[in-house]
Design a protein that fits this description.
Receptor-associated Protein, 2 domains, 3-stranded antiparallel beta sheet, mainly alpha, about 475 residues
Length: about 475
């Protein structure tokens, strides 16, 4: 019995050693160039492999992304022009970081591990929608020209001047050289790249149609960027007019009206009610303006915090916005257009319906429409149709629902969703232009009315003074 236990222990130990060696060998095979397979590669692939073979060989002992986390380094190096450059980079160890930087044409002078207090501060997205669209167009063009994916991304990294953006593309190159797929390399960048793009690239890698998918995603992000710019452009002028109107009214009440108050107090006559109201409001602003400003800032900060971190509050506010007459159309048309266009792209590229819904949940930031998508997933799990979740819903237009039903019944759901997206794109532009036309006269009336009331409150007592003097 004792001998059997010892025998089983030996077998278990050697089986464990064999398993570890086998896994290590498998990891090595991922990064060492196989000369026999290289014969079947085209000229561009061989060129790329030869350029990066030394870097790949350094990964033999450490590459296992699921088990290891990257370390954060800060370096100082000299480029090919003799200029000293500084930057940060993430790698699995210092040797890989040095080899990668050397592969990029940099001579490393100093490289150190970053402390936990040494972090990058980026305001807003590292890559904007326009940056994303332009980069995807370039990648597609390079791939269609026969340039390998690694070299295509390397070109993007070299032509990028901003350090934060350059670092993103450098790390993508690093992950590609380490053996990752393009979609995996993008997903490792956290929230830099949208989940939609990652899933579309993953689907394209299976079909071998990455270049065309990148073109389509570029058009998609271009349309989104255009829509956002139209909204900003439409709201810029009214916002400037509103701020200017408020500043003018506050200036008159705080600095101009008090001068007339001294004159009216010496008159001794009874002042009209409108003058009394303006003078009281002027005194209130003089004594409480700083406190009101601080209070407004605090309210805005609390609102932003609750909106970003408390889902129930965000749902409540977004539901309220969707019941404001003119604003309702802008939000609804934008959400329906984005949902339809994204869903159409996913379906047309063979992404499973359930996976598509998961992506759509992350694309939309509106909790009302996220609930609709969640209901769609629930209906699909129960064997229902996609359109069931949109039926008779107050936040989803009837026309869009009917077109989705038609697409389901005819087996042309992707095509119908594209038509829905195009239709509501045009409606969204019209809604943006209409709100711009509506806000401008409202602001002009507000400015004219506010200044007019102040002027009347001053002129009326002056006429009374003139009557007394005469």
């Amino acid at each position: 019995m004792k001998n059997n236990i010892i025998t089983y222990a030996y077998r278990g130990f050697f089986s464990f050693i064999y398993l570890i060696i086998g896994k290590r060998k498998k990891i090595q095979d991922m990064f060492i160039i196989d000369d026999e397979n290289a014969i079947n590669m085209d000229a561009n692939d061989i060129f790329a492999k030869n350029r990066t073979s030394s870097f790949q060989e350094s990964n033999n002992e450490v590459k296992n992304a699921e088990l290891m986390e990257k370390l954060h380094f800060r370096y100082k190096a000299t480029n090919t022009k003799g200029k000293v450059v500084k930057g940060t980079f993430d790698a699995y160890n210092v040797e890989q970081a040095k080899k990668f930087l050397a592969n990029q044409g940099l001579t490393v002078n100093e490289i150190t591990l970053r402390s936990k207090y040494d972090f990058d501060i980026n305001i807003g997205s590292v890559l904007s929608m326009s940056d994303m669209a332009f980069a995807l167009t370039q990648l597609s063009t390079y791939l269609k020209a026969g340039i390998t994916l690694v070299d295509s991304v390397r070109i993007l990294a070299k032509q990028t001047e901003k350090p934060a953006k350059k670092k993103v593309w450098d790390i993508v190159v690093y992950d590609l050289l380490s053996g990752d797929n393009f979609s995996t390399a993008l997903s490792k960048q956290g929230k830099v790249f949208p989940k939609l793009l990652i899933n579309m690239c993953k689907s394209a890698e299976l079909t071998g149609d990455l270049a065309n998918v990148l073109d389509e995603m570029s058009d998609y992000y271009t349309s989104i960027d255009t829509t956002r710019k139209e909204i900003k452009s439409a709201m810029t002028y009214p916002t400037v007019v509103l701020i200017f109107a408020i500043l003018v009214v506050v200036f008159v009440l705080v600095w101009v009206v008090p001068q007339y108050e001294t004159m009216f107090s010496g008159l001794g006559a009874k002042l009209p009610q409108i003058t009394v109201m303006v003078l009281n409001f002027s005194q209130f602003l003089q004594h409480n303006m700083l406190g009101m400003l601080i209070l407004i800032i605090i309210i805005l900060l609390i609102y932003l915090y609750l909106f970003r971190n408390v889902r129930s509050f965000r749902l409540m506010m977004q539901t309220f916005y969707l019941h404001i007459p003119v604003v309702k159309k802008i939000i609804m048309y934008s959400e329906v257009s984005m949902f339809s266009r994204t869903f159409a792209s996913l379906i047309n590229h063979g992404v499973y319906i359930t996976d598509s819904m998961d992506v759509l949940l992350n694309v939309s930031e509106n909790e009302v429409y996220r609930k609709i998508i969640a209901n769609t997933v629930r209906n699909l799990n129960l064997g229902g149709k996609i359109s069931d979740a949109f039926k008779d819903h107050w936040a989803f237009p009837l026309v869009a629902y009917e077109m989705i039903v038609t697409g389901e019944n005819t087996g042309q759901l992707g095509t119908m969703l594209e038509k829905v997206a195009n239709y509501y794109d045009s409606l969204h532009r019209n809604a943006v232009n209409s709100i711009k036309s509506l806000i401008e006269p409202i602001l002009i009336v507000f400015l004219a009315g506010s200044v007019g009331i102040i002027i009347l409150s001053i002129i009326i007592p002056m006429f009374e003074m003139y009557k007394v003097i005469s």
